[in-house]
Amino acid sequence: MVRKATAGDLPAINAIYEEARQFMRAHGNLSQWVNGYPQQALLEADIEHSELYVMVTHEDVIYGVFMLHFGKDPTYAVIEDGKWLDDSEYATIHRIASDGTHSRVYHEAVEFAKMHCLHLRVDTHADNKPMQQAIRREGFTYCGIIHLENGDPRYAYEWISPVLSSH
């Protein structure tokens, strides 16, 4: 089950992000989510804007977290070495992480997002091979390179519902 995160969820969310950082390091991704990213203030803002979601068991134990932003993402305004497939309204999945106890967490997040939006975008670090595989497995198309606010490049992907693309 997916539900909106609350301030009371932050200890579990922070533990999940720490687990995700360790997983990245163990799998050769040494430069993504450094210096404690995502920071507490960012997570609190995501909760305040109703954009942070948690995945929970039937017992309400949190095992995954992601941010889902509806509307334009400023870091997606410019794309290099490619182009977006569609300019219609979209939602963006950011900061997805798992505690490692459940498989296919990205699939669950995408299925949730697809219930609320027919056009999705996502990006990931060049070294995040497991995430790139998960993104492609969910039917996203590689579109090019975007840059974060700090200038760091990210591989950008897009998914468009067949319902939307047939119009």
What is the element layout, followed by pairings?
Elements lengths: L1 E3 L5 H17 L13 H9 L3 E5 L5 E9 L20 E8 L6 H12 L2 E6 L4 H9 L3 E7 L5 E8 L1 H4 L2
Parallel strand pairs: 4-5
Antiparallel strand pairs: 1-2, 2-3, 3-4, 5-7, 6-7
What would the keywords be for this entry?
28% strand; alpha+beta; 167 residues; seven-stranded mixed beta sheet
Please, could you describe this protein's structure?
The chain is α+β, with helices and mostly antiparallel strands. It has one domain (2-165): Gcn5-related N-acetyltransferase (GNAT) (Aminopeptidase), CATH 3.40.630.30. It has 5 helices and 7 strands; from the N terminus they run E-H-H-E-E-E-H-E-H-E-E-H. The model has no long low-confidence stretch (mean pLDDT 94).
Brief account:
With 167 residues, the chain is of the alpha+beta class. It has helices spanning 10-26, 40-48, 105-116, 129-137, 162-165, and strands at residues 2-4, 52-56, 62-70, 91-98, 119-124, 141-147, 153-160. It contains 5 helices and 7 strands.
